[in-house]
């Protein structure tokens, strides 16, 4: 007979634990409470937003902008340059250097000009240039330029070195390859007869001239000079102008282009050392549009200075609606020269002759006080 199986009934597995039910109820109630709270908090802003009446707090842009601007560093007001020329005799000893620089600082000077190469070709600092040394171009009265620059730096005064560019009979006579030649190039050209003391001049188209001037400019910048001011960057007046030989090799080369090329080469070299190159001319080179086939007003450099020395302006010179009279004062002529040339040379700065006090005027020009 088949064995019977006893069927067990596990009723408890279908029963619900009362404690589990209680936990579920508590969780549901807590969840509903949280949702209700969120809804209560969001109701007002949402309704206002949908109705276009949102009034929640916004960042005050004016205040934040003001705070940002106030916290930012204020730009330092740039002072106009106040120029002064110094004579080398004022720098003969360490004490003189100290006293001179202190006086410049007390006067509010920001840039001092000092002639370091004159129109004889002599250098008035202790140059390491071998060609200058061989030619005997370093003066026994050379100033201690390093000490002078260091003293100026302590007073935030920039040093500008004035160099005679092409009027250099010493180097032109020493190195024939650098000189303007005569005719077929067999002889050095002189600006007068030898009997009358005629002098040779440097040729702006000569590679040796350019190299010599560039080496002086870069040497000075490396010492701390911030500006090179070229004077006598001109072609000479004199006899036999038509017989000058500049070594031009093409019809496109002119006296104008050769001079501008020299200036550009020096400007580039000085700029690479962190300095600027400037030109200075007086009225006799600027008044006419062509002086010995060159328009000096058309030359370009970092800065262009107008020397307003009264001695360079002839009586009767017409400057616009003004005519220079015999009783004209330096101040009057300086102002009229500046007014006249600022229309012809953009950015021109006017100042007086070397060795004299220079005072800033309302229009930014400078003249002798």
UniProtKB/TrEMBL annotation:
Keyword flag Transmembrane helix: yes
Span of domain DUF4015: 90-277
> What name is this protein filed under?
Uncharacterized protein conserved in bacteria
Q: Which domain of life is it from?
A: Bacteria
**What stretches pass through the bilayer?**
21-40
What keywords are annotated for this sequence in UniProt?
Membrane, Transmembrane, Transmembrane helix
Residues annotated as region Disordered? 59-91
Biased composition range(s): Low complexity = 59-73
Mark out the compositionally biased spans (Basic and acidic residues): 74-87
Presence of keyword Protein biosynthesis: no
Pfam entry (one):
DUF4015
């Amino acid at each position: 007979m088949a064995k019977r199986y006893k069927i067990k009934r596990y009723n408890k597995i279908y029963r619900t634990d009362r404690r589990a039910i209680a936990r579920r109820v508590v969780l549901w109630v807590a969840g509903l409470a949280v949702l209700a709270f969120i809804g209560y908090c969001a109701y007002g802003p949402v309704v206002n937003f949908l109705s276009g009446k949102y009034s929640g707090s916004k960042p005050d842009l004016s205040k934040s902008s003001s705070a940002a601007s106030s916290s930012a560093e204020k730009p330092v007001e740039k002072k106009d340059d106040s120029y002064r020329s110094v004579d080398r005799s004022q720098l003969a000893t360490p004490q003189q250097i100290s006293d001179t620089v202190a006086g410049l600082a007390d006067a509010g000077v920001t840039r001092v000009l000092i002639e370091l190469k004159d129109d004889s070709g002599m250098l008035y600092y202790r140059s390491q240039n071998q060609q200058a040394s061989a030619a005997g171009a370093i003066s026994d009265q050379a100033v201690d330029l390093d000490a002078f620059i260091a003293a100026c730096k302590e007073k935030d005064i920039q040093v500008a070195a004035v160099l005679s560019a092409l009027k250099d009979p010493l180097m032109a006579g020493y190195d024939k390859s650098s000189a303007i030649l005569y005719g077929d190039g067999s002889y050095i050209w002189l600006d007068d007869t030898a009997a009358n003391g005629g002098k040779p001049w440097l040729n702006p188209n000569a590679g040796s001239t350019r190299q010599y001037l560039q080496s002086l400019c870069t040497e000075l910048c490396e010492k701390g000079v911030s500006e090179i001011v070229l004077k006598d960057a001109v072609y000479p007046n004199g006899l036999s102008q038509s017989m000058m030989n500049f070594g031009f090799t093409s019809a496109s080369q002119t006296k104008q282009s050769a001079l501008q090329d020299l200036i550009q080469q020096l400007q580039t070299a000085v700029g690479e050392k962190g300095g600027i190159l400037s030109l200075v001319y007086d009225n006799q080179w600027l008044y006419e549009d062509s002086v010995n086939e060159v328009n000096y007003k058309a030359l370009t450099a970092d800065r262009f200075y107008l020397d307003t020395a009264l001695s360079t302006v002839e009586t009767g010179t017409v400057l616009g609606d003004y005519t220079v009279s015999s009783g004209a004062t330096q101040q009057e002529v300086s102002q009229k020269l500046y007014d006249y040339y600022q229309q012809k040379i953009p950015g021109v700065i006017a100042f007086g002759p070397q060795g004299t006090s220079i005072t800033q005027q309302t229009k930014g020009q400078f003249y002798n006080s």
